[in-house]
Write a structure and sequence with these properties.
With 181 residues, the protein is mainly β. The protein is built from one helix and twelve strands; from the N terminus they run αββββββββββββ. The strands form two sheets. Strands 1, 3, 4, 6, 10 and 12 form a six-stranded antiparallel sheet that branches.
């Protein structure tokens, strides 16, 4: 008699586990998962400073400063009369050529229509035109190995004013080999 009670308990557990698993599959149909590596940008949320980022080529009324808006952000002001290539240099990102990265940029427009772009190092574009006020997220495969990102205004001759609330860069599928082994 003792064996049949133990068997009944075992059967009840297996049936319960099967029902829970089947229901989870029915309501949560995860087909794939995405593994992301560590955050590559130091202080990408600009909590209390722009550091370790640096502003390059500030002149006239065009500048990039830290602002307390939204808990901290980089405030970019580009004035068309200052025809300069001002940018925010984000150091030590260490993207590796051939690896894919997931990039998320949260921005807020001060002047409607303000646009910006993100480059790797001194010229390799990681983004097309990005419009302030729109959460931008995209995947890019690095074409060069470089330790810095640069955030520029999109075109010369426009007056752009925006906040960069945060920038996140994470490697996709770190240490995974895709293909035949």
């Amino acid at each position: 008699m003792q064996i049949s009670i133990a068997n009944a308990i075992l059967v009840a557990r297996l049936i319960g586990k099967s029902i829970v698993t089947a229901c989870l599959k029915m309501f949560l149909p995860f087909k794939t998962s995405q593994q992301l590596g560590e955050e590559k940008i130091t202080n990408g949320d600009f909590v209390d400073t722009l550091s370790p980022s640096t502003v390059v080529n500030a002149a006239g009324t065009s500048n990039i400063t830290w602002d307390a808006q939204g808990g901290g952000s980089a405030k970019l002001i580009y004035n068309s009369v200052d025809s300069i290539a001002i940018y925010l240099n984000l150091p030590n990102v260490n993207m590796v050529s051939g690896k894919t990265y997931y990039i998320v940029i949260d921005s807020t427009a001060i002047v409607s229509g303000s646009q910006f772009k993100l480059n790797q190092g001194n010229g390799t574009a990681l983004s097309g035109t990005l419009t302030a006020g729109v959460m931008s997220s995209f995947y890019r495969t690095a074409t060069v190995t470089n330790s810095a990102l640069r955030l520029y205004r999109n075109t010369s001759g426009d007056n752009s004013q925006l906040y960069i609330n945060s920038i996140s860069v994470k490697e996709v599928f770190p240490d995974w080999i895709i293909g035949n082994t």
